[in-house]
Amino acid sequence: MAEGRIPAERRRRRPTRSGVLLSADLIVDCALRLVGQHGPDALSVRRLGAALGCDPSAVYRYFRNTDDLLLAVADRVIGESMAGFEPGDDWVAGLRDMGHRIHRGYSEHPRIAALAAYRVTRRIHEVHAVETGIGLLRRAGFDGATAVRYYAAFVDTALGHAALDAAHLALPPERRARDHGAWTDTYQSLPAETHPQIAAVRGHLPLMAESPFETALELLLSALEARAPR
């Protein structure tokens, strides 16, 4: 059996004890909510069964295991991010919008980003995103191999920054505050005699506390535009 495929008889929708009709979408909804509220440990069939009001084993009618479910949750995030995306004639603007959508989607679900931003879901929404991204680069005139390599660099830039920003957001508030404060106290107080380069830009050091995603994306898009055959 192909990975990620569940026989039709195991996907039949069944009501939970509360009378709600159980489905793969309902389980993904619940998993997304539980992980967002309680973190990665919430992604267990026991927690899901309790939240859904069903026998935990019912989850296995729809997903092989919790990793299979995690990939479905990650694909849901991709689908929500890309919903309504219709790139126009400007391939650079299309990639820019796509990058923002991917980064924003995972930033809105930081705990899912920390778990799954580096995974390959092999599901419908990710497939559509790959098709769209490679299509935009081929529209720019890149050959097949180059379009694939550049798409990998593009999407990993968006996903990598999303995962970093999500990990930062997942820190306790006091730790985030200490990390931010380091750029306005520890680093700004370094003497010019020993750290002349840092001292020369000390007034700009608080910028280090901001996400560099926008800068990284624009640098990448500028490089792609400069190399584009068309």
Description:
- This protein has 230 residues and is mainly α.
- 59% of the residues lie in helices and 2% in strands.
- A two-stranded antiparallel ribbon has the order 1-2.
- The protein is flat and about 65 Å long.
Specify the oligomeric state.
single chain
Looking at this structure, what is the CATH superfamily of the largest domain? Tetracycline Repressor, domain 2
Q: Biggest sheet: strands side by side, in what order?
A: 1-2
Computed over alpha carbons, the radius of gyration is 22 Å
GO molecular function: DNA-binding transcription factor activity; transcription cis-regulatory region binding
Pfam families: TetR_C_1 (PF02909), TetR_N (PF00440)
Keywords: DNA-binding, Transcription, Transcription regulation
Protein name: TetR/AcrR family transcriptional regulator
Provide keyphrases for this structure.
230 residues; mainly alpha; Arc Repressor Mutant, subunit A; two-stranded antiparallel ribbon; 2% strand; flat
Question: What is the fold's blueprint, element by element?
Answer:
Elements: E1 14-15, E2 21-22, H1 24-38, H2 45-52, H3 66-82, H4 91-107, H5 110-116, H6 124-139, H7 144-169, H8 173-182, H9 196-200, H10 213-227
Antiparallel strand pairs: 1-2
Helix pairs in contact: 1-2, 1-3, 3-4, 3-5, 3-6, 4-6, 4-7, 4-10, 5-7, 6-7, 7-10
